[in-house]
Specification:
The chain is mainly beta. The chain is 4% helix and 41% strand. The strands form three sheets. Strands 4-9-8-7-6 form a five-stranded antiparallel sheet, with no helix packed on it. It has a three-stranded antiparallel sheet with strand order 1-2-5, with no helix packed on it. Strands 3-10 form a two-stranded parallel sheet. The longest helix has 6 residues.
Length: 153
Amino acid sequence: MANRTKKTVKGSCHCGFITFTANVQIDEEGSIKANRCNCTFCQKLGTTNMHLDGGRSDFQLLSPASTGEIGQYAPRMKTLVRYFCRTCGSHVWMEGYFLVNGHRQDIFSVNLATVDQPQEGVDLSLAKISYFDALNDNFEAGASDKPWPNGLV
């Protein structure tokens, strides 16, 4: 198993209005762990979620000056807000919480596709992707190494 260390990576939306840095777990080959779920939101946007171990403390919004200038969308789960660029539409990150069997599950994740490439020490083609069955609220099943039914690769 590869050793993983935290590395600060740079990211942005497509047009560059939103820029950020994030401290992510990465191995010596440049591989980042991320996941995809088959919920309707992730499916429609094709997001790949890179969870930050330290939550918001591992994320620094560089521009714009505040989240008030960024689009926000909280679909059916009003406790989980997704942030996107109002100009280019890129989904950049989500934060909040959801309940699994009555237990609060905090989440802060960045859309892996917004990590800038090329970037020294980071190659998105090496990302290790796990899959979750959120479409069926099947969180107890945990991660899979292949997509759940009705999920994207």
